[in-house]
């Protein structure tokens, strides 16, 4: 299985959802991510990172609050936002990074 650092170096945009199981807004993001994934398909990879199980990853990217979404492409951060992101806004951001 590819490591996190390998995955975010992909030329395909990788959206990382930093979340916590106890976080209410994080639960609201799950169906939004599923909806966006349904529309965009394999043009974007979406991975979820539990900050409680992966504190090093969260601290490496200065994730202070959850949910925090970070879009990586070729190992670079292209976009990030904390809090719940509406599906239409998220879809627009992702589409702007698809080649």
Secondary structure elements and their pairing?
Blueprint: H1 4-8, E1 14-19, H2 24-40, E2 45-50, H3 55-60, E3 68-73, E4 76-82, H4 87-95
Parallel strand pairs: 1-2
Antiparallel strand pairs: 1-3, 3-4
Helix pairs in contact: 2-4
How would you characterize the overall build of this protein?
There is one protein chain. This protein is 37% helix and 25% strand. With 99 residues, the chain is an alpha+beta fold. The protein has a 4-stranded mixed sheet with strand order 2-1-3-4. Helix 2 links the parallel strand 1 (14-19) and strand 2 (45-50). The radius of gyration is 12 Å and the shape is globular.
Question: Looking across the biggest beta sheet, what order are the strands in?
Answer: 2-1-3-4
* CATH level-3 fold name: Glutaredoxin
Spans of at least 5 consecutive residues whose pLDDT stays below 50 are none
Cα Rg: 12 Å
- Silhouette: globular
Label the CATH architecture.
Answer: 3-Layer(aba) Sandwich
Instruction: Quickly give the structural class.
Output: alpha+beta
- Reading the helices and strands in chain order gives HEHEHEEH
Mean pLDDT: 95
Biggest sheet statistics: 4 strands, mixed
Total DSSP E strands? 4
CATH level-4 homologous superfamily: Glutaredoxin
Specify the number of helices.
Answer: 4
Q: What is the CATH C level class, in words?
A: Alpha Beta
| Cα-to-Cα separation, first versus last residue | 25 Å
């Amino acid at each position: 299985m590819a490591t996190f650092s390998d995955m975010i170096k992909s030329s395909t945009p990788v959206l990382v959802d930093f979340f916590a199981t106890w976080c209410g807004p994080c639960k609201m993001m799950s169906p939004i991510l599923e909806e966006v994934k349904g529309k965009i398909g394999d043009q974007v990879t979406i991975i979820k990172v539990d900050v409680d199980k992966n504190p090093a990853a969260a601290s490496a990217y200065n994730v202070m609050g959850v949910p925090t979404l970070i879009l990586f492409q070729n190992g670079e951060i292209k976009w990030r936002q904390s809090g719940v992101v509406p599906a239409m806004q998220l879809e627009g951001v992702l589409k702007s990074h698809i080649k």
